[in-house]
Specification:
single chain, 491 residues, alpha/beta, Rossmann fold, pyruvate-formate lyase- activating enzyme, 2 domains, seven-stranded mixed sheet, 15 strands
């Protein structure tokens, strides 16, 4: 006789086509719901019976998801609304809302909880709009443990609930302080580890092992205050907390030896930031000789000053990719978003340092930032073409719930998306912010023009073929053959 789980943690499916259009068939990743696995590990450590249902990886529709939950018969259901990052989690709320309604229709007796980036950014609105019973704001670990332990709602920090027409909530829960001691376990064993898929650009060297993939955090939080970022809505503070290098290496050991993982994406906002954290991890991986393919975030000002020996160690450890938030080619626009403490020369130096070590970039560029006009957006595209990262990501500035830009948009009465899918940058309904000089439609049109200009550039394609081979060049050409349809442009 199987026991009834105390809680089922759900990663909702059903959005890949809506968020990525036809790019979702091959070119998007199927990401590991690390936050669900971390939460499950924490709750198991407190003695609770936990299941994870990754409906996204298993490609379950809403009916199939509800049937699977009905078979489990958990005491609680929690939909974990975390995506790859806080800034790309809002679009999944359409599927989350639909799934909530389906669950409450079919399983009304099971309390339904929402937690994650978006619910933490807009807790009252989420609780009023979605068919959930409870909402957990913040990291959620302790709040969920208190719920499962039967504590009185009024005594549980971080819990939001309805009482008639009123929305009630307790003070926010404290964040976990010692990540290594309090979050020792990641429940990889509860995930369908053979169902995940790396970003296509991570596999330009070899597409054959793309499904041997996992994502992980090695730290939580960020000390900076970029106006377009929503991460602080969950953490409520501006700092980084680290898992120990030994903890990180233990998780990677498990991924490699038990699940055959070859590609690892590190979700930290700032992995290459504190050498006392990332250098021991890299050195440990060099000693192990796993021959991994790893991607992680870095900052321009850190790479500008970094010890070249640290870059060489990262490369030897398998860090073949770094994500770099370059954002704009305009010094004037950079100042508008709180990144004015370095200039274009620092960007060039940072990229050249890494390129000289053999590290490639998935560099982020953003159009439609406050103050952007056609000239400054062209400066951004020109900088991308000059630096020639192996795979840039072209975004538009969005008023993401939880960010300062969202607050400013509400204060100024700027048009915001009618649906959460309007925050999906590659989606049909996408609606970014306008600027003082450009409409939202003009920003989207330029972004799509920049994408085509860059990825169809013969110089770029020749570089890709020289570095990664003919299959990589063909892959890029297949990607650019897919044209995104845009409602705002009349498609």
């Amino acid at each position: 006789m199987t026991t009834r789980p105390d809680i089922a943690l759900v990663n909702a499916g059903g959005t890949r086509k809506q968020v990525y259009q036809d790019l979702g068939n091959v070119f998007s990743a199927i990401d590991t719901p690390f936050w669900a696995a971390l939460t499950a590990g924490y709750l198991r450590g407190k003695g609770f019976d936990v299941s994870i249902l990754d409906a996204n990886a298993l490609n379950l529709d809403f009916d199939e998801t509800v049937r699977a939950l009905a078979d489990l018969k958990p005491r609680f259901i929690a939909i974990i609304c975390y995506s790859q990052q806080a800034n790309v989690s809002t679009p999944i709320m359409v599927a989350v809302g639909d799934l909530c309604r389906k669950i409450k229709e079919e399983l009304p007796e099971i309390p339904l909880i929402l937690t994650g980036w978006h619910p933490s950014a807009l807790p009252e609105r989420t609780l009023r709009e979605e068919a959930c019973d409870l909402l957990v704001k913040g990291e959620g670990f302790r709040t969920l443990a208190d719920l499962l332990g039967g504590a009185d709602f009024q005594s549980i920090p971080g819990l939001w609930r309805r009482e008639g027409s009123r929305i009630l909530h307790t003070p926010d829960a404290d964040n976990i302080q010692d990540l290594t001691a309090e979050l020792p376990d990641v429940a990889w064993d509860l995930l369908p580890m053979d169902r995940y898929r790396a970003f296509s650009w991570m596999c330009l060297r070899d597409f054959s092992e793309r499904t041997k993939f996992a994502s992980i955090f090695t730290s939580l939080g960020c000390p900076f205050k970029c106006s377009f970022c929503a991460i602080h809505a969950t953490y409520g503070e501006h700092r980084i907390r680290y898992f120990s290098p030994q903890w990180v290496l233990k998780q990677i050991d498990t991924l490699v030896t038990e699940y055959g993982v070859r590609h690892i994406n590190i979700h930290d906002e700032l992995f290459v930031f504190n050498p006392r954290h990332y250098v021991p991890i890299a050195e440990g991986l060099v000693e192990r000789g796993y021959n991994l393919n790893i991607n992680a975030f870095a900052r321009v000002d850190v790479l500008d000053r970094i010890d070249v020996g640290h870059l060489e160690t990262l490369k030897k450890a398998g860090f073949h990719w770094l994500k770099l938030g370059i954002e704009t080619g305009s010094t004037r626009i950079r100042a508008n978003v709180g990144k004015d403490h370095y200039g274009i020369d620092a960007v060039r130096n940072a990229v050249n340092k890494a390129h000289n070590t053999g590290i490639d970039f998935c560099a982020n560029f953003m159009f439609g930032l406050p103050g952007d006009d056609y000239a400054s957006m062209q400066d951004t595209l020109n900088l991308a073409l000059e630096l020639m990262p192996a795979f840039p990501s072209f975004f538009c500035a969005m008023a993401i719930p939880g960010s300062d830009l969202y607050k400013e948009a509400l204060e100024k009465g700027l048009p915001l998306p009618d649906t959460w899918l309007g925050y999906a940058s590659q989606g049909y309904e996408f609606l970014p912010l306008p600027t003082e000089h450009l409409t939202a439609a003009q920003v989207v049109e330029f972004r799509d023009y920049a994408f085509d200009t860059y990825f169809k550039n013969p110089v770029y394609l020749a570089m890709i073929e020289h570095k990664f081979g003919p299959a990589a060049r063909d892959h890029i050409k297949e990607m650019t053959a897919i044209r995104l349809k845009r409602k705002i442009l009349g498609d």
